[in-house]
Amino acid sequence: MSALFRGKFLDHLKHCFKRGDLAFPGSISHLKEPGTFDIFRKQFYEKKWVVYCKPPFGGPEGVLQYLGRYTHRVAISNNRILTNRDGKVSFLWRDYADDNCQKTMTLTTDEFIRRFLLHVLPERYVRIRHFGLLANRNRKDNIAACHKMLGGKNATKEKKRETWQEQLLRICGIDVTVCSICQKGKMCRMERLLPVRCKSPPEFIR
User: Fold this and answer.
1) What is the arithmetic mean of pLDDT over 160-185?
2) Are 139 and 151 in contact (CB under 8 A)?
3) How far apart are CA 166 and CA 87, in angstroms?
4) Is residue 38 part of a domain?
């Protein structure tokens, strides 16, 4: 497969050169001289090409699972952390240079935290950005226009916003509204007690 891909790629490169579709800016503009490009192209036949190919995704579930590992994960999962004691953290890692072998690394707590924080995005940066029709600026109007042109129903009505309690119950199965004592009754907020600011401690009354 490597040899086949190399041949197809370099052959297509030759046809693009003959049609004038290739541009040679700056220091490589000398390739436009007669015969120079052929010499340049033929030297790649002597190099070893590494072609990586894997089976396609089995459906939308596979695509979401693949993307989820990059967009909704932290720097290191809990199951990779082995120990955390005496000011040192030991965790598992894979050495791709050593035949993908799994090894153990031990770092000081400060160094571990420093490396972990390198994966934290700066303020106002996000992992996922939408462009085109799904850009945040005009997404609502664009989706409504698409539904109208497709003759479908307008599905842009705002849904009821999910509370953090409902989200925790849906994802983790933990219902924080259940009484922790009897495990039957439901707890609900009756009143919000705001912190009271006092300039001095209360006076002692005899």
Assistant:
1) 85
2) no
3) 38
4) yes
